[in-house]
Amino acid sequence: MRSGSVLMEYVMVQVLVACLLMLVMNELFYNWGTAEFGPAGMGIKFFYQRLLGGLSLPVP
């Protein structure tokens, strides 16, 4: 067994996980190809819009 084989296996697993996360996040949160928010991204966007709308109300 060579000394770098464990490190290379770790790097390959990390690259695979990063690619899968990138694909999932691209579809769910923000699609760079169409420049539109996905379903989860729209939920977060509407949440922050409601939050900022409530915080900007004047306090009597």
Write the layout of secondary structure elements.
Layout: H1 5-28, E1 30-31, E2 36-37, H2 39-55
Give a concise summary.
The chain has 60 residues and is mainly alpha-helical.
Give an overview of the whole structure.
There is one protein chain. A two-stranded antiparallel sheet has the order 1-2. The chain is 68% helix and 7% strand. The protein has two helices and two strands. The protein is mainly α and 60 residues long. The longest helix is centred in the N-terminal third of the chain and has 24 residues, at 5-28. Strand 1 (30-31) and strand 2 (36-37) form a beta hairpin.
Task: Give the fraction of residues assigned to helices.
Answer: 55-70%
Average pLDDT: 87
Residue stretches low in confidence (pLDDT < 50, at least 5 long) are none
Spell out the helices and strands N to C.
HEEH
How are the strands of the biggest sheet laid out side by side? 1-2
Largest sheet: 2 strands, antiparallel
